[in-house]
Amino acid sequence: MPEPDVVSWTSMISGYIRCGKIDKARELFNRNDAKRDVVTWTAMLAAYARTNRILEAEMLFNEMPEKNIVSWNSMIDGYARNGRINKGLEMFWKMKERNVVSWNMVIAGLIRNGRINEAREFFYQMPEKNVVSFTTMIAGLSRNGKVDEARVLFDRIPDRNVVSWNAMITGYTQNSRLDEAFELFEVMTEKTVASWNTLIMGFIQNGELSRGRILFDKMRQRDVVSWTTMINGYVLEGKSEEALRTFCDMQMDDWVKPNEGTFVSVLGACSDLAGLSEGMQIHQDFIILFGASAIALKEKTSVSTIAPEVSHRAEGRPGQASAIAHGQRIRTQGRTGTGRSCSTTVLTHTVGTIALGCYSKIWFLQRPQE
């Protein structure tokens, strides 16, 4: 077998990085027989910078025998992510050569650290701008309440893409200017599922759940974000029956599968059940069908003895169960003290009926084909 060359080594190291195994990648990088070039060094450096391990990135950067523009840009981004934007600016001015990505990194970093006025100054000083430059500023200005200025920039973009359109729509919804968001959405020449999701989410976040639902019903194609956004909207409004009914409808979509975020929202609906036994049964059924966690009811009711078997089952899928449980803890704690309650008889009967229908649909989809 031929000896691996630098391309092979870089590919293996990058593979570990893509899988989130950065320490394993570093072990491979440090091997005496490893072949490295500037691309290999930069891949390792960028991995540290992206995962907020800025001190390790800094040490590696200082050890690099050769640096390229990507190495410098990675460090600027890493400093900005860690709240050290001044250090990022220092590196930016030290660069012998800068490209549009370098400028965009600084602008994004300044915005991330709440320095919108400086970001604006950098934007207008740029020798060359691309659609990312404009979109970054539009998003930053909108988050700081300067949506009219953002619209001026949007109208100046020579080559708008769907990301810039969505950023402007989001800007309007963030500032509760829903009619303008809808008008812009209507004139989009190319709407993607993400565009629909952006506006639906904006309506829901501004308390316009019914408008969000109307838009949702008009979608020709939906993804997991579309469904989860709608389910979560109902949960936030305290409409548990509608949330579960929407989840049941989701099961009939052959192209979409629930993810952990979906289950967090669905369990949020279940945790609103006033009848513990009925709610617990639904949670157990979800575990059987989907491997989800029922810890929400345990924490909501402060009963430490319920469903030890459920906890045991949840351990069967530790990654999924822990993520769902963590999300549900946040949701449950956030509701503590709100005083919102539901009628035990009406809610448990309604949700129980919906859940039964949901399970029958799931059984129908999963039954053996004759």
Q: What does this entry look like structurally?
A:
GO terms for molecular function: RNA binding. It comes from Anisodus acutangulus. Keywords: Repeat. With 370 residues, the chain is an all-alpha fold. Helix content is 72%, strand content 0%. The protein is built from 22 helices and no strands. It has helices spanning 6-18, 22-30, 38-50, 54-63, 69-81, 85-94, 100-112, 116-125, 131-143, 147-156, 162-174, 178-186, 193-205, 209-218, 224-236, 240-251, 260-270, 276-290, 295-301, 308-314, 318-335, 344-366.
Total strands: the figure is: 0
Unreliable segments (pLDDT under 50, ≥5 consecutive)? 292-367
Helix content: over 70%
Rg from C-alpha positions? 25 Å
Kindly report the average pLDDT value: 79
Structural class: mainly alpha
Give the CA-CA distance, first to last residue: 50 Å
How many helices? The count is: 22
Strand content bin: under 5%
How many strands, which pairing sense, and closed or not: the largest β-sheet? none
Order of helices and strands: HHHHHHHHHHHHHHHHHHHHHH
Shape by Cα distribution: globular
Secondary-structure map:
Elements: H1 6-18, H2 22-30, H3 38-50, H4 54-63, H5 69-81, H6 85-94, H7 100-112, H8 116-125, H9 131-143, H10 147-156, H11 162-174, H12 178-186, H13 193-205, H14 209-218, H15 224-236, H16 240-251, H17 260-270, H18 276-290, H19 295-301, H20 308-314, H21 318-335, H22 344-366
Helix pairs in contact: 1-2, 1-3, 2-3, 3-4, 3-5, 4-5, 5-6, 5-7, 6-7, 7-8, 7-9, 8-9, 9-10, 9-11, 10-11, 11-12, 11-13, 12-13, 13-14, 13-15, 14-15, 15-16, 15-17, 16-17, 16-22, 17-21, 18-22, 19-21
